[in-house]
Amino acid sequence: MKKDNIEELFRDVDFDTSEPHDGHRERFLEKLKDENFSAKKKPRVRSLWATFLGIAAGLALLVFLGGTYFNYQALGSSLDLASVSPEMKQTQEFYTSLIENELKEIQEEKSPETEAIVKDALAQMAKLDTEYEELKRDLLKSGKDKRVIHAMINNFQQRIDLLNTVLTQIEEIKLLKNNSHENYII
């Protein structure tokens, strides 16, 4: 690449070095005064619109953030597996119905002999319910993290295992009761 000298670049350019026409300076100053005068008025109008637009944007942002906050609060109490996906909704419905059925069965089998077991099972269920509520809050905070979802499903499985164990124990108590009455001859 060849080095260009500045003088070589401008050698062929014809610069207009003639004097301006008479009154050029006055006309130029007059134009500057007109621009300054009109420039002083325009910023006031622009600043007034800018103020209104700024207030409107601020209110819109406030409404958006307020809506997001209240929506967050509303979701906080209702966010669970069903809100993750349709498959998780089916999973939650399955486990919930299974738990309800087993709780009804336990209540039907309740007797004076099994009252202590049922009472203990209900206390453990209350603990698992509390853990599930905490997991729901964690799900909201974590942005539907898969580990939290897995923990929620595990919580449902623990409840079902607990209820199955209680039902098994109730059946054993009923069998023992029936067997002990069979040994007596009247």
From TrEMBL:
TM spans (from-to): 48-70
Keyword annotations from UniProtKB, A to Z: Membrane, Transmembrane, Transmembrane helix
Domain of life: Bacteria
Name this polypeptide is given: DUF4179 domain-containing protein
